Amino acid sequence: MKLHEIEIVTQCGESVYIECASNEDIITAGLRQDIILMSSCREGGCATCKGLCTDGDYDLVKCTVQALPPEEEEEGHVLLCRAFPKSNMRVEVPYTADRISTTATESKRDFFAELIKITPVASNTVEVTMQRIPDELSGSDVNVSFEPGQFFDIQLPGTDLWRSFSPSNLPNKDGILEFLIRILPDGRFSNFLSYDAKAGQVLNLRGSSGSFYLHDNGLQARYFLAGGTGLSPVLSMVRKMYDQGDPQETRLYFGVSKQEEVFYVNELNALSEKMRNLTVKVSISHPDLDWIGEHGNVVETLRKDLEISGAKPDIYLCGPSGMVDATYRMCVDLDIPKSNICTEKFLPSGSASE
Ligand SMILES: Cc1cc2nc3c(=O)[nH]c(=O)nc-3n(C[C@H](O)[C@H](O)[C@H](O)COP(=O)(O)OP(=O)(O)OC[C@H]3O[C@@H](n4cnc5c(N)ncnc54)[C@H](O)[C@@H]3O)c2cc1C
Ligand code: FES
Predict the structure, then answer these.
(1) Domain boundaries of the chain, sorted by first residue
(2) End-to-end alpha carbon distance in the chain
(3) Which candidate among 199, 234, 251, 303 keeps its CA 20 to 30 Å from the CA of 114?
């Protein structure tokens, strides 16, 4: 079968080339050639593999609307795990060349971590702490490296199911990973955490992956909006800004529906005390009478602030798909350039096949 040449152009202008037949998707073709592009679900549901095709023809199959809305598809955006080429193609990806591994195999990115503790922090959220353990490949090195904002895939023990979760802490040499995880009714991983997981248990992790991380845009202000456990990667990004002393105006909008669902208010207040350029607003849609923070939908809180100030900051959005889409549209309506809006949707697993 004829092989097509796929040019992947990274944010830094470097290109990598993949040969791809018309009956295989571009992510799979890359893996076959030891070129590991950004991907996660590999079934059209998470948008991690999204790129912009500027030349060439292709078929796209089974992408979810959340991962690839029709207007983006019309603009030429593609999900590389669902794109089957019909000719040579040129695709621009929103990450730099150092995010593409060209030597390691996918399995070499797997590692093991011990479950240290699971702490409930709200009615539907737990904080999960893990510690990487040494293995044959790492030797005594238990360093966890990732770009704050990225996620890891964690295998549900005893199954071949994987779930994506984003750490809230910073990369570190001690191998500690902290996650904020929403407990979903009858979720497979949620049930494991609620009923079966035990301290000392060893889990299989893979990663890091994803293109949701801080982008350098000079001293442009950065506004973050997190819904529920969308706070996890956002916190990691803001902690990185504090760590490296980034001076630009920074705002963190955090929203939940009910007061029993709110968490980390003290942590956020403590962070804004020491990070002088950070403003935190916590919004609850249906608060109790004693709530002294923002009342109402967090998207509205952000909209009002943007309208009043006329600011056009870089925007980082993370959380449920509907909230991310609504905020994205609102920001575009307020003339914030699309290229300054970075999103991560916490899509359900297996959503492409549903
Ligand atoms: C890149 C990425 C990073 C993520 N990071 C985090 C994170 O840091 N913290 C976190 O809490 N979640 C995160 N998620 C979402 C998380 O991976 C899914 O919610 C997870 O698959 C749920 O696993 P489960 O086995 O408990 O539920 P499942 O068994 O997968 O689902 C059970 C039921 O819940 C529904 N469901 C599943 N997920 C959701 C959802 N997100 N919203 C509403 N209904 C849902 C399903 O449709 C199903 O009916 C992330 C998702 C992605 C794609
Ligand atoms: S990896 Fe392609 S959509 Fe998830």
Answers:
(1) 3-99, 106-209, 222-353
(2) 32
(3) 234
> 41 CB less than 6 Å from ligand 2?
yes
Q: Whose alpha carbon is nearest atom 30 of ligand 1?
A: 349
Under the phi-then-psi rule, with left for phi > 0, alpha for psi from -120 to 50, and beta for the rest, what region is 336?
A: beta
Q: For the domain bounded by 222-353, which CATH number is listed? A: 3.40.50.80
Query: Using CA positions, which residue lies closest to atom 13 of ligand 1?
Result: 165
Ligand closest to CA 48: 2
In angstroms, the CA 20 to CA 27 distance is: 9
| pTM, full prediction | 0.83
Task: Check pocket membership of 297 for ligand 2, CB cut-off 6 A.
Answer: no
Give the count of beta carbons closer than 10 Å to the beta carbon of residue 150: 24
Helices 231-243 & 265-274, crossing angle to 10 degrees?
20
Class of domain 106-209: mainly beta
* Nearest listed ligand to the Cα of residue 127: 1
Task: Point out which residues pair with 15 in neighbouring strands.
Answer: 9
The reply to whether 3-99 and 222-353 are identical in fold is no
Query: pLDDT tens digits, residue range 166-198?
Result: 999 999 999 999 999 999 999 999 999 999 999
Instruction: Please tell me the CATH superfamily of domain 3-99, with its number.
Output: Beta-grasp domain (3.10.20.30)
pLDDT digits (tens, 9 = 90+) for 69-105: 889 999 999 999 999 999 999 999 988 887 787 654 4
CB 184: neighbour CB atoms within 10 A? 13
How many angstroms separate the alpha carbon of residue 154 from the centre of ligand 1?
Answer: 12
